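DM from R.C. (forwarded with permission)

"hey, sorry to bug you on a friday — could you get me a structure for this? deadline for the figure draft is monday and I only need the backbone to look sensible"
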Amino acid sequence: MSGSAERRRIQVAAPLPNTQQAMRRRNLSLVLHAVAAHGPLSRASVAARVGLTRAAVSTLVDELIRDGLLVELGPSRPGTVGRPGSALQLNERGPAGLGAEIGVDHLAVCAVDLTGRVRARAEVASANRDRSPAPVLAQLSALVGKVAAEAERDGLRPVGLAVAVPGLVARDASLVVRAPNLGWEGVDIGPGLRAALPGLPVTVDNEANLGALAELWRGGHDPAPRDFVHVSAEIGIGAAVVLDGRLLRGTHGFAGELGHVPVRPEGPACACGGRGCLEQYAGEEAVLRASGLSPEQATAQHPGPGGRIALLAVRAAGGDRRVRRALRGAGSALGIALAGAVNLLDPEKVVLGGALTPLAPWLLPALERELGRRLTDPARPGSGAVTVSRLGPDGPLLGAASSVVQAVLDDPAGFRDPAGEGEPTGEGEPTGEGAPAGIRGSDA
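My reply, with the result:
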């Protein structure tokens, strides 16, 4: 990796004012991101990566250790000139992110440590469609409490909860503006969760957005794409756009509503009020109908969260011609809708995620064929433009928990361990050489 690319990877996400205190907070984040991306590392190695003096790094590392974010493992491997330093790594018993998902047929919660490892998880079947929000949130709060308690018994300290919802969520708010497949409209789910979980910061986001962020942070791509469209599904179809490593939210936070892009303008009516939307051809219930199954029949035959998708996958793998034909039709509709997005945005990749991943073997051929026919650049083939997420249906849940962890990495000073002793001393600042733009200062 080039030096400039290296520095981009460990830069903090959100700019802070250029005060001494803000510069220090940015430098704490630089150090923590460096260890997160490349650890275990010695203090000297961290200094070389982020462009700080060794003395400055030592001061910052001491603070991060005191706050429960880093731990020292002992002397690093020999083979370098000089006395071996102690290797640093993220604290696996420090802050943890809690993620939750409100699905149409399930509720799920997990706890993720700073290294990204899932340390606790719980999931229950729950028929949430057209159910009042209050009992759903009460059930979710109980599940969060159970997972948080398990994480705490494992030595973790939950510092926030992010909730994935299959609907439109107002930007920088917890208001679910519209979630047609839940039957919710104008529901602010934040206050109820905060009241039930006092002291735990709560954020809410669209499930497709969080699935895309999970793909960006932990999708296992080598190298990780910085420009991609992420398509996911539960009952409906959602999408999210990542450009230059950042989520595109739009003015109101509603970017990515691929499921309501019309693929056949005179097609059947959609719950959104339009006609011929992608969801009417590639949504779970549409595919079930085209396969000759009602949602109720499918649930009875394969109960539990994700059971209907699993049933379709089993039947398709078994050679069921009607199911395979329905999936080809869904893939074709996806290709039509995605061709417009690809032509407009020119992403590096299209990532198929969420509940669509088990059906990828039967969706992809038709999807890629439509892309190949409709892309404006004839030199860009449809085949190979689409990849299948390794995260599968867990993407939104993992993205929710990981968003809390990213917040810790981006501003570790905001997540100090109350058990830490003393106040930080010294003002470690970048030397200028090798430091990211906007984070330069004088040495301590």
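R.C.: lifesaver. Residues 1-13, 421-444 have pLDDT under 50 and may be disordered.
me: no worries. The longest strand covers residues 157-165.
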